[in-house]
Amino acid sequence: MKINRLLPGILIIAILFTVPAFSIQDAYAGVPLTISDEASCESIPGAVWSSPPDTCTLTSSYTIAAGPGWIIAAGVTLVINSGVTLTSDSIIDNFGTIDNFGTIDQNNAVLRNFGTINNYGTIDNGVSGNIENPGTINHICDFVYSGDPIQGNPPNIIPCPPPEPPVVGGEVLAINNIALFVSGISSSAVWMIPTLAGLAGAGVYLVKFRTNKK
């Protein structure tokens, strides 16, 4: 009799300990979305597929909810447009290329890069993000990176290219030539001022001479 009375309590305790365990396992269970073609790409709201090369472009911000996450297939480029934020609460496995011109926000998420990430924009790895990099990550020009450090291969820092020299008179001038050109104009102005003044004075004299002659 006592055992029968205790059974409901034992079952409740067992359920309380069992449900969280299954919930944690199921959070990343299931089949991930593999971005490999037009159908898989455009199943993401705001994503556009173009080919060749095989490219999936995010044109609006999107959040990958906790779950099985994404796989970017080899040979596919995922482009995150400027002004677009990809927030991840899950796992991203990249076997292709990610060109980030917007923001990647790692929110208690995992990003495993086996391919290439070109970061022209912002990557926020947060305080609980995890980026594993057996591949290549390039931080390019005016990039921004914050949060926990990248594990694995260190990222490459690629500076902005130098500005192109201006074209004057159909000829590309180097920086030193530009300085000489500006200096030449300045020095020319110095000797041209008295010359122009002399010509003006001569003109006034001729006008007066012709007037008196008449």
Describe the secondary-structure layout:
Blueprint: H1 2-27, E1 33-35, H2 38-41, E2 47-50, E3 55-58, E4 62-64, E5 70-72, E6 77-80, E7 85-88, E8 91-94, E9 97-100, E10 103-106, E11 110-113, E12 116-119, E13 122-124, E14 130-133, E15 136-140, E16 144-146, E17 151-152, E18 156-158, E19 167-168, E20 171-172, H3 175-213
Parallel strand pairs: 1-5, 3-6, 4-7, 5-8, 6-9, 7-10, 8-11, 9-12, 10-13, 11-14, 12-15, 13-16, 14-17, 15-18
Antiparallel strand pairs: 2-3, 19-20
Your description of this structure?
Mean pLDDT is about 80; it is low at about 10-30, about 180-185 and about 185-190. Strand 19 and strand 20 form a beta hairpin. The chain starts with a helix and ends with a helix. The chain is globular and about 65 Å long. The chain is about 30% helix and about 30% strand. The longest helix has about 40 residues, at about 175-214. The strands form 4 sheets. A 7-stranded mixed sheet has the order 2-3-6-9-12-15-18. A 6-stranded parallel sheet has the order 1-5-8-11-14-17. With about 210 residues, the protein is of the alpha/beta class. It has helices at about 1-25, 40, 175-214; strands at about 35, 45-50, 55-60, 60-65, 70, 75-80, 85-90, 90-95, 95-100, 105, 110-115, 115-120, 120-125, 130-135, 135-140, 145, 150, 155-160, 165-170, 170. It folds into 2 domains: about 30-160; about 165-214.
